[in-house]
Amino acid sequence: MTAERTDTVPLPASPASTASPAAPPRDGQFTPVSVVPPRGAATAFRFPAVHRPVVPGVRTALLVADCVAALLGALALSEGRRHPLLVALLVAVSLLVRPRGGRRPAPGLLDELPAVWGRTAVAWLALAALAAAYGPGHVLPTRTVLTGLVVQAVACCALRGAVHGRRRAALLRHPHPALVVGPVATAQRVAAAVLRSPRSGVRPVGIVGQPDGVEGLPVLTTGEEVKRAVIQNGVRAVLVVGGAARAEQESLLRALAESGCRVWELDAGGPGCPADERLAGFPCRRLDLAPARREDLGKRALDVLVSGALLALVSPLLLVCATVLRLSDGPGVVFRQERIGRDGRPFTLLKFRTHRPVDERESATRWSVANEHEMRRFCRMLRRTSLDELLQLWNVLRGDMSLVGPRPERPYFVAQFSQTYPGYAARHRVRAGLTGLAQVHGLRGDTSIEDRSRFDNAYIDDWSLWQDVCILLRTAVALVRPTGS
């Protein structure tokens, strides 16, 4: 797959190389707050669970709205075709393709209009296709499909709009208390702008940072002060100003997310910044920092199905590679090495041995392989085609790794990179991967660790099962025309 080469040779001491583990730590844009525990003590933060939401049952209300709209659309079916199974199929398909109500607290009617109409059209087209496939006598007339589509889409927009309108009214009366994390001067400016925009549904109550004499909301500098603010104000949202603040306060933000707070990253640098949403005019995006993700089930199912099928498919090839390696290079066909996986837990990574380090210490602390031309021809072929990485499918099947995720690294380099590059440690929120977003963007081998970290965290924050499929397809294309790494 698209793995880095990390076996035996010191990294060149080129000043242009940003991947060097010996690079000096970079200064952040602001001093870390004293509430952040030292590395390895992330469990020191424990905040009380947040009681949510202000309007109970919003997701349930949206689910009911979609079901009712589908039933109203089914009324367009004629008496002869209004079979319970057909109606059930329409409701089921409509719920499968329903808009995810997830990230925005209360989107407007116009915001959801394209998605509702598009997915309703998909539901009715799917229903028409299933009915036609069942038998010629069940084909739905075009007029019936169009009428049902319009009725269901209009009803869905009206019902969902009513739910969101009630939600917005409640947020206007009782906005979510929020903490702003970041450089105090910038955080106070953002907080003041949000307070001037009550329609945002957020009310900042404090700043997490180092006091610098700027007037405004109270500045919280200790863990006890943050905890007191969470309890007394019922903090339910966190606004992170700038990427540096997010990297420096990773443990604090994750603890707040685990307590039930929604974490948003704001860009206060000016106009023209891409964003998922806008908060008081600032570009922002929702961060998912809680360790338990409901998407894990789908991701794990994809890992097991694909890795199991691939292992069965390529087992003859693995046997041939192992046999040739044993005959040409002697014993020790499988290379085992400790890597760091999810939540910092070590695991043993497997691959075919293509190079023999002098000893275990060299294997654990040397960056990449030089003098590749001195390898045997078959070993060079394995590395160039990434066939030596196929054994990691067993790591995926066991659950040590995932098909897609940040590439795992050795403990020696994880310790150095975590101190040198902000956000590097946050890559370990998920299972390590055989390939990842960084790798399909060419960040393999001796490339920028900072860039890899940024792509890996972007992948985690914006995760979707479809994104995993896209990365796997791009990886497959890259393997068809291998260039080595």
Topology:
Elements: H1 58-74, H2 84-96, H3 109-134, H4 142-173, E1 176-181, H5 184-195, E2 202-208, E3 219-220, H6 223-233, E4 237-241, H7 243-248, H8 250-258, E5 262-266, E6 277-279, E7 282-287, H9 296-329, E8 334-340, E9 346-352, H10 360-365, H11 377-385, H12 392-398, E10 401-404, H13 411-420, E11 432-435, H14 437-440, H15 449-461, H16 465-480
Parallel strand pairs: 1-2, 1-4, 2-3, 4-5, 10-11
Antiparallel strand pairs: 5-7, 6-7, 8-9
Helix pairs in contact: 1-2, 1-4, 2-3, 3-4, 9-12
Biggest pleated sheet: 7 strands, mixed
Order of helices and strands: HHHHEHEEHEHHEEEHEEHHHEHEHHH
Mean pLDDT: 77
- Low-confidence spans: 2-44, 52-56
Radius of gyration: 27 Å
Shape: flat
Termini separation comes to 10 Å
Helical/strand content category: alpha/beta
Structure annotation, total helices:
16
Structure description:
The protein is α/β, with parallel strands linked by helices. It has three domains: 125 residues, 3-Layer(aba) Sandwich (Rossmann fold), CATH 3.40.50; 115 residues, no CATH class; 185 residues, no CATH class. The protein has 16 helices and eleven strands. A seven-stranded mixed beta sheet has the order 3-2-1-4-5-7-6. Strand 8 and strand 9 form a beta hairpin. Helix 1 packs antiparallel against helix 4 and helix 2 crosses helix 3. The longest helix is centred in the middle third of the chain and has 34 residues. The radius of gyration is 27 Å and the shape is flat. It starts with 57 loop residues before the first helix and ends in a 5-residue tail after the last helix. The N terminus is likely disordered. Belongs to the bacterial sugar transferase family. Pfam families: Bac_transf. This is Exopolysaccharide biosynthesis polyprenyl glycosylphosphotransferase.
